[in-house]
Amino acid sequence: MPKIHIKSVQCTVPDEIDKDEMFLKYDGKKIWPVGDWYFRIDTGDKVVVNIDLEVQDGWNELELWDFDYLTFNDHLGTFKFFVDNNKGEYSTSMELCEEGSTASYIMQWELT
To answer: Could you tell me the superkingdom of the organism this chain comes from (predicted)?
Structure first.
């Protein structure tokens, strides 16, 4: 199985006015932040994620969620990326999941 290194996630535009409480899921499981429920992020913020993942060859998806205390968590969007034998550094823009959302995020990752 190929391995990728997720370097960082940058918020271009949050979904909420008072910052997003983001977390990442892969294959239905929360993978980041480790040890916390979420990470608060705002416009222009770039957070170092620094995690390694074993993924499948071909298309993969990493989900970005917004933590909510009183309601269900919001699946803001999905980073869809293609893994093959071309090692290198990449960036992937998030595809929105919620209709009417303004959220915009970019993930920086590396195929190792």
So the answer is: Bacteria
Sign of CA dihedral 57, 112, 86, 107: positive
| Model confidence pLDDT, tens digit, residues 17-32 | 889 999 999 999 999 9
Of 84, 36, 37, residue with least CA distance to 58: 84
Contact 91, 108 (CB under 8 A): yes
Whether residue 41 contacts residue 56, with contact meaning beta carbons closer than 8 Å, is answered with no
In degrees rounded to 5, what are phi and psi of residue 71? Answer: -130, 180
Task: Write down the pTM of the prediction.
Answer: 0.94
CATH class label, 3-111: mainly beta
Domain range annotation of the chain: 3-111
Best CA proximity match to 110, nearest among 84, 94, 90: 90
Contacts of 98 (CB under 8 A, 6+ apart): 15, 74, 75, 76, 77
